[in-house]
Amino acid sequence: MVHTRGVINLILFQHYFSMFLHKTETFTLMEQLANLAMKQLMDEKSGYNEDKELLKKLSINVPRKDSFLKRDLDARAHSEAYRLKFHLPNSEKLDGTSDATLWTPYNKHHVWGTLYLSQNFVCFDSRVANLVTLVIPLREVNLVEKVESQNIGSDLAMLITNKNASSHLFSNLKDREFVMRKISELLSRIKVNLTTSISSADSNLESSHHDEANNWNPQPALMTLFEFPNPTPPTIESEKESNWEKHFYIYGKGITMYRTVELAKIVLTGIPNGLRRELWPIFSGAMTDMSMAEPGLYRSLVNQAFSKSSTANDEIERDLHRSLPEHPAFQSEIGICALRRVLRAYACRNPQIGYCQAMNIVASVLLLFCTEEESFWLLAAVCEQMLPDYYNSRVVGALVDQGVLDDLTRTHLPELHAKLDDLGMIRMISLSWFLTIFLSVMHYESAVLVVDCFFYDGAKVIFQLALAILENNQDALLMCKDEGEAMQLLTNYLEGVTNDEISDNLISLHRDHEVIVKSISIQNLLYESYSKYGSLTASGIERMRLRHRLRVVQSLEDSVSRNVVRSVASFGFFTQDELQDLLALVREEQLCLRGSQPARIANIDPSTPHYEMFKVDFELFQSLFTGLSPWGHCSHAETLAARLFRLMDRDEDGFLNFRELVGALGMTSSADLTQRLKLLYTLHLPPLLSPSEIESPQQESDAEVAAEATDFFDSFEQQASCLGYDFMNSATSPDSAEGPSWRKMSVSSLHSLVLPSNPSRLHSKAMPCMAQPYFISLWKTLYDMFHAEPEDEETYHSIASIGTLLLQLGDVNKKFLGSRQASVDSLHSPSLKVETPSSPRFVSPPNLVLGEEDDNGNSSVNMESSESSGSNYALALPASPSTDEDEKTPNNNTRKKSDSPPQWSITLDQFLASALTGAPIVSFFERRINLIETIERFRKRRYVRLQSWPPEPTAASSPERKV
């Protein structure tokens, strides 16, 4: 949280800053940066991206700024204020401003104000608030010309003539030549865009005519097909239409009309039913979106939405019949089908929002007065511009506005605020009122007047109305004893809001066969809201939203973080605090990456596990591995990181979710001794370690890899029934037509052996043996790990001794397998019992026995004769490599004949037992890191890394810039 007094509140600390030379400017910049960060947390597409076009922009009378970033941020802030003031699309960028006067023909005055230019609009706003506002789309402009006049107040004039023959005169333009040149440049781009869209429209229409599978016709305004249950009397409706026609005659019609206080007054009385289709799109900005969109887009989106299934479509189907059921249009398939198309098309257009409850109620009212396509664009304007972030799974926008309403109530109704705060009422009322723009709590014939004002004045209307409702019920609310009583009081009040223009409205209002008492007319309620709280402004609401957006987003992020940490805590590798810190680091790194390149985090379905919401790619994983894991300090760290990433990436999507990341880091830095050694062993097995990475003679490598793979599957299938895996029915060869590939199956199997859900000694028996080239690579890695440790002669001696011991064990295994093959081939008798894959061979080789197991299940190695020791322990060895050649035993049983010579190999148990005899190795792999301290050091290094990035481009680098 940022305060004007120079205090920044973080989660745990407060930081105080003082001695500002430009305090207000600094505070505004801090607010803007915080707002950008919060929007990026909510929507990764809303993050900061430099506007490269700003470098090429022609400017005049602009003070030079050394920092391109500062200029870019200022331009962004000015564009946001510009779009908010004139209800323009989110893509519109302010190009420049100039002081000017506007000739107002309705009172024959020159009004001072500001002329605004952007890619698609010329706008004007008077210096006196709400005196006059003008919006001219460049697509409507037919001619721009100079006007030379000797009249006082009209020199340096420019006349803009529109296609509808209306014209607007701007005077006192000090930079008239520059402004006209800029408008001409913008008009040339508009004409090119219009030509392109017309040609694309022709192709779309041709394709749609040939598309018989999607044959449907959009509906007109449903009010033309169905009568209102309580229609406005014709005399009142015709009188309102006459008043509007008079207003149009004086102030103009269409989007280029002069918007004055008189327009606000006539909107407050209500827009005639027949004019809502024309005026709602103009006031909301939906007309601009619709005119700038590719023709035929709505039909295309509907066809796409019906061609595929989605969760949004299922949710829409559940809510269709709950949408304005009192109106006959939605008791018919005509209205239901039109509503279905609009909602599905929008879910297809904006999959990040998809569908949210309450959108069906808003869209159903829009369909009564507008066509399908117009309703679609109005819904888009509501969801994306007028009520941003309202309609998503987190309803962040509604939560933010709860805080805004809470602040406004505290300011304007302090006594009532204390009562509502005790009852916890603000959260309960704002969600249902704001999400549906009061359509779900009032009768729609009354609430539609609220929608009129909402489209004209924006979100400030719902705050004004909420304050007026609370003030009118203040005395009764202060007497309520609990929130249930208070909610019922407000419910009864809102259900009794009537429309004075509709006859017998009181008789039509029923609930459970009880007549609802009239509380107030909607006309009086709106008038009170404007007269008492009309001082609220859209810019003021936005500033308050910023303050509460920080709190809401941080609260949601904290909740998500707790759920994620809870979902991975079962690993036991790290404490809750360490997991929280690691998750925070991942989020920081993701944000840093997004700042310089496109976001690479996939959109996560809300139904997926919590840990799937945070994913890291290999680049980020490698950075975390080398910065946090003790294994990341050696020269082989990059190759180890690559193998570990492949091992943990079970779905092979190129990302590790947070659970897989915790497993990878935990097994290398916090797991128990044997688990770390087992992982190190696994990372040097094929296919994780490829032959190209092994520095060994070529003639040995290919044979070793093939034998190792065969041995692995022979031994693994023997243990499949014990481990609960069914590989017999799965495709395990490269030539299989179905199932996972042989390569994928082996990596997946290694993952199951390294990180089993129920660890047991059977997993070490199922682990494949390691051939000599792979063992040499493993021992080089182990030696390299200790290279980063303080030099110790005892350590290197221990590593050399254990390596020699394992080499000797591998030779013993080779000789033993050779003698066993010769023995089996020479003994064929009817009494020979044929071994099956389910009965693994356990034979003790000469001169080697396994000692007693310790508490951790580790075996010790005794280099002595098994006969003299009298030990009953046996060494688990995989079945010998097989070929496709079959032999027949004397019993006519099929037996594989092995022609390949026995190879040097060691088992996992031998590796573990030998490694555990070295005190330095045990000490190194038992050492547990303090993750919080390690992360702190990582952050310091990251700061240095960020400071070393290439400098940003500056405005001075642009040869076209004129200052």
From TrEMBL:
GO MF annotation terms: calcium ion binding; GTPase activator activity
Pfam families registered for this protein in UniProt: GRAM, RabGAP-TBC
- Region: Disordered; residue ranges are 827-903
Known InterPro entries for this protein? EF-hand-dom_pair (IPR011992), EF_Hand_1_Ca_BS (IPR018247), EF_hand_dom (IPR002048), GRAM (IPR004182), PH-like_dom_sf (IPR011993), Rab-GAP-TBC_dom (IPR000195), Rab-GAP_TBC_sf (IPR035969), TCB1D9/TCB1D9B_PH-GRAM2 (IPR036017)
Quote the SMART domains the UniProt record gives.
Answer: GRAM, TBC
Q: What is this protein called?
A: Rab-GAP TBC domain-containing protein
User: Compositionally biased, Low complexity: which spans?
Assistant: 857-872
Which UniProt keyword terms apply here? Calcium, GTPase activation, Repeat
UniProt xrefs under SUPFAM superfamilies = EF-hand, Ypt/Rab-GAP domain of gyp1p
Q: Where would I find the EF-hand domain in this sequence?
A: 636-671
List the transmembrane segments: none
Species source reads Cloeon dipterum
